[in-house]
Amino acid sequence: MKKIIVISFAILSILACDDHLSGYKDSYRRALANLDISCKEGNSEIYLKCDLDDEPLCYYEGVDNYEILYGYATRSVTPGPSFTTGDTIQVQGRFGKIRFYDPENANDDILDIWFPLGPFEQSETRYLDRLFSEKELNYNASGDSNNVVVKYLMKEPAKYSGFNVYDNSSEHGVQEENAYFRIEQVEKEEDDATITYRFEFKFKCSLYYNPQYKSDVGRELDNGVFKGEITIDK
Questions:
Q1: Where does the pLDDT of residue 7 fall: very low under 50, low under 70, confident under 90, or very high at 90 and above?
Q2: Burial class (CB in 10 A: 0-12, 13-18, 19+), 92
Q3: Which terminus of the chain, N or C, has less C-beta within 10 A?
């Protein structure tokens, strides 16, 4: 398990060309058609598994190089849709984020969980202690950073170079009444230098593509179980 400290600046980009939006939407639909939803089980006690549109999907630590990446990030916003030298960046706070991914394959799909925003001055340990004291978290509505967000990031090679990332997120649409995100179990272990949190989450939600690309495509994530651990320095 790796640990990183991330500073992220939320700088919104505006795409003015309808042709570009249409092309991106078409590319997204191609990615959906080519998506290989599968579950290759392993023996690790660290795993994520769920049903995505009624098909089993899972990641186990050590299988296809998948592992957990944890970060304590800073959320900031700019005064406009783009950043200009001299602009004042407003720091909103800090939040924890957990990613299940393959660090050796940039094209593989990724599942992210972003946790509620906390005060910027709050220590990482204090943040995690307060987070894991909760039994259930509400899902994030668009523009609200005080709840949990589940993201399934699909990737497809871009036309000329690199790849496009398709953000399927719980924050881009309305959640059904039976959606949930539960913190089922947390164990905390300390030594002289580190603190380890072992956890189990269970969740269910609807995922929607980013509405700025004018796509109404959604996905249903059900029976989600995420068992893992994160270790931070004291």
A1: very low
A2: middle
A3: C
Q: What is the CA radius of gyration of the chain?
A: 18
First and final CA of the chain: distance in angstroms?
Answer: 17
Distance of CA 154 to the CA centre of its chain: 12
* pLDDT single digits (tens) 66-110: 999 898 887 766 665 565 666 666 667 788 999 888 888 766 778
- CA nearest neighbour of 225 among 167, 180, 172: 180
DSSP notation for the chain? -EEE--EEEE-------HHHHHHHHHHHHHHHHH----B---S-S-EEEEEETTEEEEEETTGGG-EEEEEEEEEEE-SSSS--TTPPPEEEEEEEEEEEE-TT-TTS-EEEEEPPPB-TTS-HHHHHHHHHT-SB-PBPPTT--SSBEEEEEEEEE-SSSSEEEEEEEGGGSPPPTT-EEEEEEEEEEE-SSEEEEEEEEEEEEEEEE-GGG----EEEEEEEEEEEEEEEE-
pTM of the predicted protein model: 0.78
Q: Which residues on adjacent β-strands are paired with residue 183? A: 201
How many residues in the chain? 234
